[in-house]
Amino acid sequence: MEKEGDTELTVSAENLEKQFKYIKEKAYRSVFFKEIHSEFRKKIIITFDDGYYNNYEFLPSLLQKYDLKATIFISTSFIENGYDENKMMGFEDLKKLSSNFFEIALHSHSHQNFRTLSNSEIENDLKLNMQILESHQIQYSKVLAYPYGKYPKNGAEQEKLFHTLKKLGIDFAVRIGNKINYFPNAKPYELCRIDIKGEDSLQRFKLKLILGKLKLF
């Protein structure tokens, strides 16, 4: 499940709590990516992108209240330089997030569309993403959310990318695909995320959680 932070995709704290409450009531077990192979029957990975400060303000108490976990994909350039008019977390804020409820993961450094970059540019960007987190002593999982959900579709370029990800020790990469993932999965660098939008009603949220992509709306 994905929670974006830009204006049109912002989820209010009130709606987010309703969604968390539903997840808990329906006995979904939220896990980190490092726990993805656990044997829980109804697993869910809750994800947020970029490192917005509202994640720091509202998420810890809600996750603790409903005993849930979340993964935040960090674009390190956004943490260093900000992102438009959005208030972002700082590195010290990231370090204060409890590892009981939060997992930090990769979202590239510069947050550029991977379809427009060469393979060497992608590799250097991901290395920088990891190096900066390490320099600030921030523990992270080697899981990548593709910026804008995009990655090369061309067979040769895609193969180069996947080889690079493997070389860098990245275990999984996720895109927006609005499909339910099943494990074991033969495509670890093409895992899908369900796109939860700010205007989604609770009923629509429930349907997406069960079905993934909806064609009825």
What would your notes on this structure say?
With 217 residues, the chain is of the alpha/beta class. Helices cover 36% and strands 15% of the residues. The chain is built from seven helices and ten strands. The strands form three sheets. Strands 6-5-4-1-10 form a five-stranded parallel β-sheet. The protein has a three-stranded parallel β-sheet with strand order 7-8-9, with no helix packed on it. α2 links the parallel β4 and β5. α1 runs parallel beside α2. The radius of gyration is 17 Å and the shape is globular. It starts with a strand and ends in a 6-residue tail after the last helix. The relative contact order is 0.15.
Topology of this protein?
Blueprint: E1 2-3, H1 13-25, E2 29-30, E3 43-44, E4 47-50, H2 53-66, E5 70-74, H3 76-81, H4 91-96, E6 102-106, H5 119-135, E7 143-145, H6 155-167, E8 172-176, E9 191-193, E10 195-196, H7 202-211
Parallel strand pairs: 1-4, 1-10, 2-3, 4-5, 5-6, 7-8, 8-9
Helix pairs in contact: 1-2
